[in-house]
Amino acid sequence: MILDALSVLLLLLGLFFFVSGLLGLWRFPDTFARLHALTKADNLGLGLVMTGLLFQVPDVLWAIKFILVWLLALVASAVNAHLIAVFLHRQQEGHDESA
Amino acid sequence: MNEAASVVWVISLPLLGALLATVWRQYAATIGWVSSALTAGCAVWLLWVVQRAGVQELALGGWEIGLGISLYADGLAAVMVLMSSLVVLGCSVYARHYFRAQRQHELFWPLWLLLATALNALFLAGDLFNVYVTLELLGISASALTALGAKRAALRAALRYLVVGLLGSMLYLMAITLLYAAYGTLNAVQIAEALQVDPLGWAALLLMLAGLALKMALFPLHFWLPPAHSNAPAPVSAALSALVVKAAFYLVVRLWFEVFAPLTTPLLANALGALGAMAVLWGSWSALRAERLKLLAAYSSVAQLGYLVMFFPLLAVLEGEARQWLFGAMVLFALSHAFAKSALFLAAGILLQYAGHDRIRELSGTTQALPLTTFVIALAGIALVGLPPSGAFLGKWYLLDAAFKTGQWWWVLVLVAGSLLATAYVFRLLGHAFGHLPAVKRPVVAATQEIPALALALLATFGLGLGAMSLWSWLAHTGTGAGL
Amino acid sequence: MNLLDGLWGVLDLLLVAVLLLLAMAAVLSSDRRRSMMLFIVFGLVLALVWARLHAPDIALAEAAIGAGLGGALLMATLRRDTHQQTDQFPQHPVVLWGVGVLVMVLGTAIAWGLFSVLPTVEQTWRKGAAVDAQLAFSGVSHPVTAVLLNFRAWDTLLELAVLLAAIFGIRALGYVRSAYVTEVAFSQLAVWLVPLLILMAGYVLWAGAHSPGGAFQAGALLAGAGILLRLAGYSHAGLPTTRWLVRLGLVAGTGVFLLVGLGLLGWGQGFLHYPIAYAKWWILLIEMLATVSIGMTLTLAFMGGIPQKEAA
Amino acid sequence: MNTVLLAVVVVLALVLLISLLIMLSRTRLTDRLLAVQLLGTLGVAILLMLAVVMQQRAFLDTALVLVLLAVVVTAVFTHRQRGGKS
């Protein structure tokens, strides 16, 4: 019961971060700021959702896979954010007219 | 080896050839024509097996049919496989000396053999989803081969051809989804047995007909055919016009007369026949006005497919013996067109190589320079018009006969008008070709290019005409799906 | 219980709304880059929908091939397409009306057919439980793999041939390969990701015997690794530098599949008829080579052909 | 508990819908790319939740594949070609 409550709490926190990421995407003035808000949101949001779910899994193999997904998502989101930032930077420097 | 193995070999040999030609690129041409020749041999074997031992049904993997896939070879399928293998063989021999650029050579052979695999696999498929897979292979290899034409127009035509082909396959796939959801099997015979006259059946029939009409370029969905068929390399054009559209027609025949037989009403058949009639008139008229020989040949294909569809309304009302003979005549007409049209395209390729263009107005002197090629064009023309002794003559004659017998005289008008137009475009072509030019240089033409074209043209006229009776009677009486 | 059903209903509605919105936006958008981004998201949401429909196999395939690799290939195509010309279909009003009517008729036919089949589809599925009955004799314990590699192996064999035709088609279009600018930071990250992708491919292949997975998904992951290597500055994307070895790799899957089938025929078993005792091993062999072939084909599709010597 | 989890999934799907609408309203390419990233993460989160609710371990593999290939897609999209063309 306590585990369930904890799980719900974490899930709600995760949701909060997702929603704030959404707000960031919507309201933040320039793209770098949006990038910043977004990366935070989806790493933390996904992390919290994942942790919340950890209390609900049937066996330890599930738990390992959950953590694996999250770790990979961290790596992936770091790479993604870097790529997007470089792309954006290049655009703003005027290297790229096609976008 | 047991007799049913022939079914497997006519599909496996070209596929094996395609794989070998990919890896051993320097021997690709040799691998190509050797495997085509072996396939043709196996196709004869298959026909012999079917003639002797009746319908061959092979459950692949040893699973019960329905769970596993079956290959199904009856008389119609065996004849189509033989037709396709012979045309492929002719074009393969021709193609050895056709391509100049190394890159084209390297890409042509694997794709060409994959096309041959797809055709034979399609003719022999007993499973409707398997048919879809073969349609995919056929569509992709055919449009890739069209792109080998290398000109910008060819690339554009190839891409459009690809998109149209995918659209057709998609419609067909949707129909299969519906049928599978309703009957829980993909096997054609099992679906035919279970099929009921209900909205689902109608929807499936409509979707399949629409998809396949697109693929066989039935008027008014023929818009993609002339650019694709006229811009592809000559051996590819030959196969596209002679075989690929015919594969779609073959599927329509199978679905119409076997799977969906309870749903097909004379009204629907007449609607199809009307489209066919318009295809005949429009295709022949456009062929008459075409500036280029290959464009003429492509438009003539639109018309010839129209004739094939015009058999449907008459088959819908005839019964018994007369219907069987008419069915045989339709197959004979399809065969005749396959050989004639491939010969015409191969001849056009020779002309294009030596004259540098195929503009009909400027063909004067062709007879002097390329007598054999002109002869091939004339023979192919005989079959396209439907003059005796070609196979098409028998087909048209019997169509005429059936139209009178059933009192549907309006088809006769279309038939006569189409034939007159065909005569006009063939004689316009020959008229220009026979134009005399002073001092024409005789180019050296590789015999391996002219002989296959001649052989195919002879098959269309004398072969099918004089040897037709036994084949016709066999088609009418055994194994064809007509009686199913 | 009622609340649960209600929530499922709301979720379904939301997913359908998202899917429809995406599809319409992707088709109607005039900017092709935008369309493709929408298409990729479409693949992602479609994977969710398949998951919701209890179809984990298709969800996995959609994630790997539809959203992931398909997206990468589309992007690559768009970037190679330097001339911004579009092939306009005829705009004549008669043609447009004709197409419109045809689409309406076919759409109605599909809807009509679907509505008539929906009430009975469950029964049909129960009746057609032949796969489960024969699963024990197929050599694998996952029904989808059993269908793909054993019951309907012929379809899969031909599908592999379709991939082969596709790669030749891409070559026939004669794309100009452009070189990529390599960035150090990206190359460092790619070095981390490539082994992960290969490991994951191995896992997905192995998992296919007993749970969703298999050669096509694993091949897509391998191709993902190849694409990353290509972008990170490896001109051959990890493929062999000997050209005939590449070609051998391309045909390996189809080739072994066909040779096993024909070999069994020669053995007296029948085409593609595995003996029960060895079925598992034949399937494993075929799947492994098919994975390699699919991975190489998709990587080459991204690159536009077998790499030539590239200027530094 | 499943009801609660499913409710969270519904909210996540709602967020997905809204981010899609934001994405459609944006004209700049990078903004759209950002939105795609958010959509991807939301998709993964929904898949993880569905895995627990529907007791399907296979969805975890799907999530892994999505995460890994998302990088490939972004890399292809943002990578620069020689000659300054992007």
From TrEMBL, chain A:
Molecular-function annotations in GO: sodium:proton antiporter activity
InterPro entries for the chain: PhaG_MnhG_YufB (IPR005133)
Any Pfam family hit:
PhaG_MnhG_YufB
- Keyword field contains Glycoprotein: no
Q: Which UniProt keywords apply?
A: Membrane, Transmembrane, Transmembrane helix
Residues spanning the membrane: 6-25, 67-88
State the name under which the record lists this protein: Multisubunit sodium/proton antiporter, MrpG subunit
Annotated organism of origin: Thiothrix caldifontis
TrEMBL record, chain B:
State whether keyword Membrane applies: yes
Instruction: Tell me the GO molecular function terms.
Output: NADH dehydrogenase (ubiquinone) activity
> InterPro entries recorded for this chain?
CPA3_Na-H_Antiporter_D (IPR050586), NADH_UbQ_OxRdtase (IPR003918), ND/Mrp_TM (IPR001750)
Question: A single Pfam family, by name?
Answer: Proton_antipo_M
- What keywords appear on the UniProt entry? Cell membrane, Membrane, Transmembrane, Transmembrane helix
Q: Where in the cell is it found?
A: Cell membrane; Membrane
In terms of superkingdom, the source organism counts as Bacteria
This entry carries the following GO cellular component terms, namely: plasma membrane
Single GO BP term: ATP synthesis coupled electron transport
- The answer to keyword Transferase applying to this record is no
Q: How does it sit in the membrane?
A: Multi-pass membrane protein
All copies of domain NADH:quinone oxidoreductase/Mrp antiporter transmembrane, residue ranges: 125-421
Q: Please classify the protein's predominant subcellular localization into one broad category.
A: membrane
Family, according to the entry, reads as follows: Belongs to the CPA3 antiporters (TC 2.A.63) subunit D family.
Protein name (record): Multisubunit sodium/proton antiporter, MrpD subunit
Q: Please tell me the species this chain comes from.
A: Thiothrix caldifontis
TrEMBL record, chain C:
What do the Gene Ontology cellular component annotations say?
plasma membrane
Its membrane topology is listed as: Multi-pass membrane protein
* Location in the cell: Cell membrane
Q: Where is the MrpA C-terminal/MbhD domain?
A: 18-80
**InterPro entries per the UniProt record, alphabetical:** CPA3_antiporter_subunitB (IPR050622), MnhB (IPR007182), MrpA_C/MbhD (IPR025383)
Q: Which UniProt keywords apply?
A: Cell membrane, Membrane, Transmembrane, Transmembrane helix
- Segments passing through the bilayer: 6-28, 35-53, 59-78, 94-115, 157-177, 189-209, 215-232, 244-267, 279-303
Top-rank taxon, per record: Bacteria
Question: From the record, what ranges are coiled-coil?
Answer: none
Query: Is Membrane one of the keywords?
Result: yes
Give the Na+/H+ antiporter MnhB subunit-related protein domain ranges. Answer: 189-291
| Family of the protein in this entry | Belongs to the CPA3 antiporters (TC 2.A.63) subunit B family.
Q: What is this protein called?
A: Uncharacterized MnhB-related membrane protein
Gene source species: Thiothrix caldifontis
TrEMBL record, chain D:
Asked whether the keyword Membrane is assigned, the reply is yes
UniProt KW Cell membrane keyword: yes
The membrane-spanning stretches of this chain are 6-24, 33-52, 58-77
Q: What is its main location?
A: membrane
Q: Mind telling me which GO cellular component terms the entry cites?
A: plasma membrane
Q: What keywords tag this UniProt record?
A: Cell membrane, Membrane, Transmembrane, Transmembrane helix
Query: Can you name one GO molecular function term for this protein?
Result: monoatomic ion transmembrane transporter activity
Localization annotation: Cell membrane
User: Its topology with respect to the membrane?
Assistant: Multi-pass membrane protein
- Enumerate the InterPro entries for this protein: MrpF/PhaF-like
**UniProt signal peptide:** none
Protein name listed in UniProt: Multisubunit sodium/proton antiporter, MrpF subunit
Species of origin reads Thiothrix caldifontis
